[in-house]
Structure formats: C-alpha cells, structure tokens
C-alpha cells in the first residue's frame, strides 16, 4: 500500500548549529497508529514540526499523501491535523467558534453538521457555547483534538496526548484515538509513556539523539527483543548452580531459593525441556515454576542504554 507519509533523509540543524535530526527515513501506511518514542530532546517534536510545516528542514524531503511539504505545502498541510501539547490561543472564544474557525483556516466551506458531529463525538457538545478558559484541562485537550480535526485531515499528529492527564482521561483519549483510526485516520503520536505505546501502537519508532534507531511492528518488537525468564522455585536452597548446568547461565536468587533462566523470547522451547531434564538429573528439585516476559518498557530502556 502507498504510504500516507514518506520521510526521506530528513535532517535538521538549528541555527546555533545543534543537529536535532540526522537523516531520518520513515514511511507510515494509511490507517496506522504509529508511536514515536524517545527521551527528552531526542527530536520528536522537531520531526513532527517539520512534517506540519512549522519548522524548516535543513535536508531531505517529506511527502504527505503524495504532496511534497515544501513545493506543495497547502495540499500537504490540508491533509494534516496537529494536536499540540498545549492550547495557547483562543482562550476567550467559545468552543464552537474556535473549532469552526479552525476549519475556515484551511479554506474548507462551513459545515455546521460536521462541527456538530465532531463536538458530539468528543463529548464537547454540551460545552459548545462555553469559553475555552472556563473549561477543565481534560475538556481543553478535547478542544485541541476537535480543532485539529476540524478540516477533516487524513493524518493526525498528537504530541504527548496524555502528558499530565488523569487515568480516566487517559483511557478516554486512547479510546478516542482508536475510534479515529477506525474511521481511516492515520495517527502518529509521540509519547514518553511506554505503556501508552504498548497499548495503542501498531508500529513503534524509537528516536534517540536525532536518529531513528529502530522502527518495528509492536508485536514483532516485543517478540524479537523481549526476553523471557523461567523461574524455578526450588524444593531446598542451593549454595551454587551445579557445574553440569553451567552452559545455561543460570542465576540463583532469593538466597538460593530460586533459580532463573533468562532466554530470548523468540527462541524455541526445546532447550527448556532439556534444562528441566538436566536439572532433575542433577538432583535439583523444584516445587513451582513460572515465566515472565519483558515489557516494552524493559526493551526501550535497554535500547536507549545500549546506544548511549
Ligand atoms: N529552536 C531551536 N533552536 C535550537 N535548538 C532547538 C530548537 N528547538 C529544539 N531544539 C533542540 O533540539 C533537540 C530536539 O528537540 P525536540 O523538541 O525535537 O525534542 P523532543 O524529542 O520533542 O523532546 P521532549 O520529549 O522533551 O519534547 C533538543 O536538544 C532541543 O534543545
């Protein structure tokens, strides 16, 4: 399928000489939820800002829906909605006016039925005549989304959509993002919350110091990089791992009461069976057995650490 966003060799060096993006390549398919993860200052906002036309790249190119974001700026920009982290303007305007005005900014004809649907879908209908400044933080976030969707974009960028919101609103936002995706909107979100990416994303990109160091399907990423642990609760504490089992690299824990075997998630189960047989042969009795799988968070921390 043709990409809705195609980024090629994208670089950004800010005026002071700081290189915020280093030859980033990325293709996003229509209807995906793509999460961009990275530590503070990694370049996430810079990347989004370039695609949205707010910051000028110093190298490379970006196409949105087949339109070059520089040569064909208006066509590209009309396909994009951006939900920034904070609402900075329109504080005195009503919810309705600010959303309807955003639509007008893109030269779209008035469409009260669409604006009404948008406000209803975002549970903002009862607030349509209220001034923005009178809304709660959660409602303001919804207004930001409504504004971003007012011109019916095909791609929605959300910059840290749930930073600083409570658990309930966070769940609401996640539901909303999925619903948008179900209507065919492509969603690209940046987040510091690994669990958010784990919950929401189809694909994950990890950016570090301006480089996109990894792009992978979420499930493949967890399967490929995730580690599993087999933990045996021993019948009696062991002082040391029997020499005959050395090749497994077993680890004794909890004062010799537990034996852990760490293996990579993609590995066949065959050597687990061999391990258990060899344990029995070595006279190591166990009374319980459990496995754990590393989360996306563990993987992310390892990744960022590795390249540090
Ligand atoms: N206008 C600017 N002039 C100079 N440097 C800048 C400018 N804007 C951003 N930077 C630098 O570029 C780097 C990337 O910033 P960016 O905001 O893209 O990171 P981020 O990944 O979005 O971070 P955060 O997670 O903290 O929002 C940072 O080191 C930042 O200080």
From TrEMBL:
Q: Which Gene3D superfamilies does the protein's record reference?
A: P-loop containing nucleotide triphosphate hydrolases
Per the UniProt entry, what species is this protein from, by scientific name? Methylopila capsulata
Q: Which CDD domains match?
A: ABC_DR_subfamily_A
Q: Where is the ABC transporter domain?
A: 5-234
Please indicate which superkingdom the organism of origin belongs to: Bacteria
Q: What is this protein called?
A: ABC transporter ATP-binding protein
InterPro entries from the UniProt entry = AAA+_ATPase, ABC_transporter-like_ATP-bd, ABC_transporter-like_CS, ABC_transporter_ATP-binding, P-loop_NTPase
Q: Indicate yes or no for the key word Nucleotide-binding.
A: yes
Q: Which family does it belong to?
A: Belongs to the ABC transporter superfamily.
One MF term in the entry's GO annotations: ATP binding
Name the keywords, alphabetized: ATP-binding, Nucleotide-binding, Transport
Looking up PROSITE patterns in the UniProt record yields: ABC_TRANSPORTER_1 (PS00211), ABC_TRANSPORTER_2 (PS50893)
């Amino acid at each position: 399928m043709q990409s809705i966003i195609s980024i090629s060799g994208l670089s950004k060096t800010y005026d002071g000489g700081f290189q915020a993006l280093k030859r980033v390549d990325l293709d996003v398919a229509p209807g995906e939820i793509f999460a961009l993860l990275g530590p503070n200052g990694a370049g996430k906002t810079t990347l989004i800002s370039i695609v949205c036309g707010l910051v000028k790249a110093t190298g490379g190119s970006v196409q949105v829906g087949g339109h070059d974001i520089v040569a064909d700026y208006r066509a590209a920009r009309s396909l994009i909605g951006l939900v920034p982290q904070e609402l900075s303007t329109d504080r005195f305007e009503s919810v309705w006016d600010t959303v309807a005005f955003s639509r007008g900014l893109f030269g779209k004809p008035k469409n009260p039925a669409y604006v009404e649907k948008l406000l209803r879908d975002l549970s903002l209908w009862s607030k349509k005549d209220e001034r923005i400044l009178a809304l709660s933080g959660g409602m303001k976030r919804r207004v930001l989304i409504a504004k971003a969707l007012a011109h019916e974009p095909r791609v929605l960028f959300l910059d840290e959509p749930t930073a600083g919101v409570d658990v309930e609103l966070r769940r609401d936002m996640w539901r909303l993002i999925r619903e948008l995706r179900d209507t065919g909107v492509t969603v690209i979100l940046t987040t510091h919350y690994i669990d958010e990416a784990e919950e929401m994303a189809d694909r994950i990109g990890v950016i570090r110091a301006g480089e996109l160091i990894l792009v992978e399907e979420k499930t493949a990423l967890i399967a490929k990089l995730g580690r599993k642990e087999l933990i045996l609760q021993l019948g009696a504490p062991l002082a040391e791992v029997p020499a005959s089992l050395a090749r497994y690299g077993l680890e004794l824990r909890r004062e010799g009461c537990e034996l852990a075997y760490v293996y990579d998630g993609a590995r066949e189960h065959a050597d687990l069976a061999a391990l258990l047989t060899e344990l029995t042969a070595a006279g190591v009795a166990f009374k319980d057995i459990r496995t754990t799988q590393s989360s996306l968070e563990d993987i992310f921390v390892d990744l960022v650490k590795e390249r540090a």
